[in-house]
Please model this.
Amino acid sequence: MQKLVIKGRKEISGKISISGSKNATLPILAASILGDHVRIKNIPLVKDIFTMIDLLNFIGLKTKLIKKENIIEISNNSKNINTLAPYKLVKTMRAGVLVLGSLLTKYKKAKVSLPGGCAIGTRPVDLHLFALKKLGAKIKIKDGYIFAQAKNGLRGAKISFPSISVGATENALLAAFKAKGKTILNNCAVEPEIKDLIKFLKKLGAKIHLKGRSISISESKIKNSKVVHQVIFDRIELGTYMIASSLLAKNNFMIDKIDPAIIRSEINVLRKIGVKIIQKKNYIIIKKSKRLKNINITTKPYPGFPTDLQAQLMVLLTQANGISKIKEDIFENRFMHVPELRRMGAQIEIKDKTAIIKGPTKLTGAEVMATDLRASVSLVLAGLIAENRTVINRIYHLDRGYEFLEKKLKNCKAEIKRI
Ligand code: EPZ
Model:
């Protein structure tokens, strides 16, 4: 099994360019089932995206991945469509469940494996099914699969989500595309990735309007012409490298191919901690921070501070002066990185949903392992600032979501290698 070996305490210099967003590309790929021919640019070449492409191929779409240009072309003109998302694909990548909405819209039926729990929580899909049922889908759960049907097509409805869910909002948007009449979705997630999906759906012909946390969709026709879309940048990758550079930048460190306006709350949080950030239109400059301050923060749906940056922020806070608290309010089990960080010398205690971090502490290299994508990258950050050598096991988690991680860091003079 592959491992990452990091020699810590090396300053980084130069610049990092941010890749396309994994979590925007996944629902857009699921939405491509609706179109005849789409060309999607700026897709990150990471494992989860390859799995979603495998799923589209399994369903019967034709895909052509142009790796050198980070582009995928997808056409859907086959008569042999499999309206099935099998367990073997959905179990490795939960976003597979997003084909449910598209398949129901286009083919009026779908059989999609239930994803099951994962390392960060139980992650049910009840809110997805709640929305689809409101749109008139008949749903049965049998043998670990969701069987959904809408023989006469779906019909518009007013749906208020009892709590905010990114995936359920996406599935509902995909299902509402051709639903008769008008659909109004209230209490939606409004992450930038959802706004990107809406942009893509509009290009496909959807009449969608977003206001606050409400989205209205009028019955729409799918355009037959070719649709081209450029995926937005990965704001979580950006946040990860902002944290790395605030601890390790030699001089001014540049991160480009981004839009700082989209990550206002992250920038505000880092500034409060004492990170020096110069913000420009499509890049930012980070300076190495001299003295970091403690902070109390709770993860929240966008525009709040993202759960997907919680583990990385925790590493930063091990270097801040005083006691910091992070409350994880999205997932029930997202502190799996804490025991590993403790093995590297971090002083972190968990009380219910809150991690209490005492800083500053000197981290020292160790052999560690992680259980999910963001926990893994937090260990990379810890390894980069720790004394001596850190060995990270189970790096397949990292490969699910960070494009060219070692290459990007090596180019900035970090000492990191895969063995
Ligand atoms: C998306 O997951 C992201 N994944 C996650 O990214 C991210 O952490 C999460 O949103 C929150 O921002 C993708 O976009 C592919 P949710 P999703 O539905 O859609 C509960 C990463 O590291 N819930 O907004 O699955 C759920 O258990 C990842 O890239 C229900 O109770 O998240 C959680 O507590 C991991 N019932 C909360 O809602 C449901 O039917 C938010 O989950 C659905 C969700």
Remarks:
- Residues 22-230 form a domain with the UDP-n-acetylglucosamine1-carboxyvinyl-transferase; Chain fold (CATH 3.65.10.10).
- The longest helix spans residues 235-248.
- Residues 47 and 186 are 33 Å apart (CA to CA).
- Residues 23, 26, 94-95, 121, 123-128, 165-168, 189, 306-308, 330-331, 373-374, 401 surround EPZ (CB under 6 Å).
